[in-house]
Write a structure and sequence with these properties.
CATH topology of the largest domain in chain B: ABC transporter involved in vitamin B12 uptake, BtuC
Radius of gyration of chain A: 19 Å
Mean pLDDT of chain B: 85
Strand content of chain B: under 5%
Number of domains of chain B: 2
Largest sheet of chain B: 2 strands, antiparallel
Oligomer: heterodimer
Structural class of chain A: alpha/beta
Number of helices of chain B: 14
Low-confidence stretches of chain A: 1-5
Helix content of chain B: over 70%
Largest interface: A-B, 46 and 34 residues
Order of helices and strands of chain B: HHHHEEHHEEEEHHHHHHHH
Radius of gyration of chain B: 22 Å
Order of helices and strands of chain A: EEEHEEHEHHHHEHEHEEHHH
Distance between the termini of chain A: 36 Å
Distance between the termini of chain B: 32 Å
Structural class of chain B: mainly alpha
CATH class of the largest domain in chain B: Mainly Alpha
Largest sheet of chain A: 6 strands, mixed
Number of strands of chain B: 6
Strand content of chain A: 15-25%
Strand order of the largest sheet of chain A: 6-7-8-3-9-10
Helix content of chain A: 25-40%
Shape of chain A: globular
Number of strands of chain A: 10
Strand order of the largest sheet of chain B: 1-2
Chain lengths: 272, 365
Amino acid sequence: MTTSIEFDVNLLELSGVAKRFGGLSALSDISLHIRQGEIYGLIGPNGAGKTTLFNILTGLYQADNGRFMFNNTEYSGRCKPHVLAQAGIARTFQNIRLFANMTALENVMVGRHLRTSSGIWGALTRNAKTRAEEHTIVQHARALLDYVGIDRPHQTLAKNLSYGEQRRLEIARALATDPKLLALDEPAAGMNATETENLKELLLSIRASGITVLLIEHDVKFILGLCDRVAVLDYGKKIAEDVPEKIRCDPAVITAYLGTEPIIPAQVGIQS
Amino acid sequence: MRNVLKHLSSKNRRSAWLAFLVLAIVLLALPFFTDALFGRGWVRIVDFALLYIMLALGLNIVVGYAGLLDLGYIAFFAVGAYCYALLGSPQLGLHLPFWIVLPLGALLACIFGVLLGAPTLRLRGDYLAIVTLGFGEIIRIFLNNLNAPINITNGPQGISMIDPIRVGEFSLGNTHELFGLTFPSVHLHYYLFLFFTLLVIFISLRLEDSRIGRAWMAIREDEVAAEAMGINTRNIKLLAFAMGATFGGLAGGLFAGFQGFVSPESFSLTESITVLCMVVLGGMGNINGVLLGGILLVVLPEALRHGSGPAQQLLFGKTLIDPESLRMLLFGLALITVMLWRPAGLWPSNQRQRELVTENDTTHL
């Protein structure tokens, strides 16, 4: 991983991406690009299509049309989630999806699955290679748990962690896959002010380690204070994409969030 | 075992080895004890318990680890048994030795496991259960009807006079004198089955604590998240089906060699459900629990069959209810009681136990 931030290289490019569910057009003609090393925010009112876009990026849904380039490779066709994870897109979920009955450590160890290779034969014989690999998996997982700040015994079952810890465990699990792009679906939802502040620091430190971050959030204040660039979705269309300062004053964004009556920018953050 | 030993002090380690030694002696002497105390019939029941344990351990991989509810598991047992029966009996005039037939049966079951697994990859929960149930029945009905136009399986009459398991001139079907002891056929089969059961336990333990095992459990816990974390769920699920089916086929081959007779009747849905009960009752995903479930579900009905008549004589002076019907009644009652009291099984998976330990550690926080 490079520590320098190369803002001019596009890591992810979408052009003309559309998704329909029967008669409902969830996304239409979405074009955006995420640059290497930035924190990119995606906001929009409920039902704007943010999570749908996320699911397309991570292979849970297939786009009906449009081009999807990641790291100079095209993934427009039918692409399975594990292929995109292999390519370097890791994600968390809006409603936390941990492996509830596995320990915190095991959750992160599962994240190492695609960067390790031992199979049945290795498992049965426990040869030197497999043991060494298991050892590095455990070390890596422990380090990541410390990194995101889970200081409970690592044998605690994921379901018994606190809400904030579960959110962070999901991030640790995603980081275990050595991603190039970390996609977070509402990581700050339900967090208190201190937890949100800690999360912000964590995300900045993840970015500093060279990982590009894509963020969906409802907390507009949080996202405008953190992101380098922000895109706004409304009814499945991209209505704005710019630096946070410009987004704050964009009339289309204000309309989408608050209706047609113009309003002073400072209040945008409060309403969501 | 090694993991357990690692955490023990040297004194405890010595006692652990002692316990291990005692267990080994008990297991080796078990058929003789059983024979002397309860009679030869019970040695046969113990042999069957071992076969069922192998089946339950195989199903545990599919249901307990990977979380794929399989209601047609007995089909793989049937595939293994019929493979042995067809290749080692006068039915087709083939008399291949068991060390060819047994692995072949396991391999064939493995292939059937993948064949069944492939179309069900997109199904979950109830829907998977329905399809696997159908598959189990299809295999049984096939075996029942493959006697015309060409007689392959001999239909409902089944295949008899299957060759006993034989190494050179040493046949497990006969009584042998070894080291000054008399080993009847059931005793010899006991040791063979014990060997394979230990092998299956070993494989299960190793797989449980491995990269593959973790991937299975991740799929069980949340398939979407597992996929998003880069697990190729298709391959890993097929692997679970294949491993489970292999154990089933192995047990099937041993069953055919032991019984000397197979018929489609032995592979009904009830058998699938019995094996599933062993896994669920004992504790899904926990090998110790599955062993306990297997032993209980074979021994309990037999004990009730033999015990409920005399017990009634003792209590009421006469037999009020036919022991044969009473045993199923009591058996059902026992199942319901266990599920009410211990919904996670008699011996829940060790993760829960570990969790109890850590909870005690963290209560002061």
